[in-house]
C-alpha cells in the first residue's frame, strides 16, 4: 500500500536522487545533470529546513518510491490570479520506474492540489516532461504561453 507523507529535511538525499533521475529520464545531458547536483543540493537544504520547499514523499512498505516538490513563488497579480502576489510551483515529480502505473503520480498531484488549496493559492504552474504531460492533462492542467531562453555569459 502506498502512503504519502510530508517532505522532511532528512529527505535531502532522496530528493536530489529523484531530481537527477527525472532529468536523466527526460534525456538531459549527464554532464549537465552532474554539474547541477551540488548547486541544487546547496539550494535545497535551507529551503527544506525553513519550509520554503515542501511537498510529499510516497512510501511503499517502508521504502520511498516517489515524491513531489512544491513551492510558492512571488509573482505580480495576474489575470489568472488577480488578487494574489504569488503562485504555486510544482517540481521534482518522480516515481521509481518499477512503481509506475500504480497511480502514485496521480496521488502526488492530488496531494499537491489539496495543499495549494489549503494555503489559498489559486494558480499553480509546472514544467512538464514528455512522459508527465498526459497525467497533467488528465488532471486538469493546460499548456500556457510561457517560453524560455538561456542567456549565456559573454566570453572574456
Shape: globular
Strand content: 15-25%
Determine the CATH superfamily.
Answer: Gcn5-related N-acetyltransferase (GNAT)
* Poorly predicted ranges: none
Look at the structure and give the CATH class.
Alpha Beta
Oligomer: single chain
Q: What keyword list fits this structure?
A:
156 residues; alpha+beta; Aminopeptidase
Ordered list of secondary-structure elements with their pairings:
Elements lengths: L1 E5 L5 H14 L4 H21 L3 E7 L2 E12 L11 E10 L8 H15 L5 E3 L6 H6 L18
Parallel strand pairs: 4-5
Antiparallel strand pairs: 1-2, 2-3, 3-4
Helix pairs in contact: 1-2
Structure notes:
- The structure is a single chain.
- The chain is α+β, with helices and mostly antiparallel strands and 156 residues long.
- It is built from 4 helices and 5 strands, in the order E-H-H-E-E-E-H-E-H.
- The protein has helices spanning 12-25, 30-50, 104-118, 133-138; strands at 2-6, 54-60, 63-74, 86-95, 124-126.
- It has a 5-stranded mixed sheet, with helices on both faces.
- Strand 4 (86-95), helix 3 (104-118) and strand 5 form a beta-alpha-beta unit.
- Helix 1 runs antiparallel to helix 2 (30-50).
- The longest helix is centred in the N-terminal third of the chain and has 21 residues, at 30-50.
